[in-house]
Write a structure and sequence with these properties.
globular; 11 helices; single chain; 271 residues; six-stranded parallel β-sheet; 9 strands; 11% strand
Amino acid sequence: MIIDFHTHTFPDKIAAETIKYLASKGNTTPYREGTLSSLKASMKKAGIDYSVVLPVATSPKQVQSINRLSVQENGKDGVFFAGAIHPDCENIEEILDSIKSSGLFGVKIHPDYQGVYFDDARYIRILREAAKRDLVTVTHAGVDVGYPNDVHCTPQMVLNVLERLSGLIDGKLILAHMGGYQFPDEVEKRLVGKPVYFDTAYVLDRYPEKCKELIEKHGFDKILFATDSPWSDQKKFVDLLRSFGFGEEENNRIFYRNAEKLLKNRGHEYL
């Protein structure tokens, strides 16, 4: 089995425009159209059984509509959805209660697109309240190609949060992009071995040897296979991870067992 724990889709009516804007802003090239149907086609081509879509709310007013659509599509045709939340929402607890009761496994935050530093009190509140409800939080970590000059989630900020919420969010925080895109040395110094997951989204082909080293040092039970599709090629990432030469048991943990544990423990027993 293969589970891609980090993908993005957009509603059909805005997908083309959104992808064009993001590609231009980040000076990057998408590998598919950005629709849900294009994700399913990509999964089939890559031999991926399940994908997790991580929607981002760039303003509080988007949260309700995004979550409504996520609940509607969650679990269909091998695609799971996280909920969206924004640090400026006033009703954080209510939103998280709704996400929990709707069967979503957790939330996605994006400090760069939401304009808030990761160790800000608003994110501390979200992380604390999500953990109390046994929800997972996935955060963008490191440089975002659309906002390269002001990094809102550095390894040191993550360390600040882990110290502030000591023990409370253990095993319930996923740091995208191997703990911090373009910060591999700092990730190794500050975050390797901490009770957080790293996902392989976007970075696996950017510095593969360093990724392999970080995987081995952080531990195979704390790594999630992920691509960041449409911004990476799902098939290429599957082949690249296999080329690292890990054993079958290690590959299985990365490809699906770690993700399966996170999802099954939060209601997705039909995996």
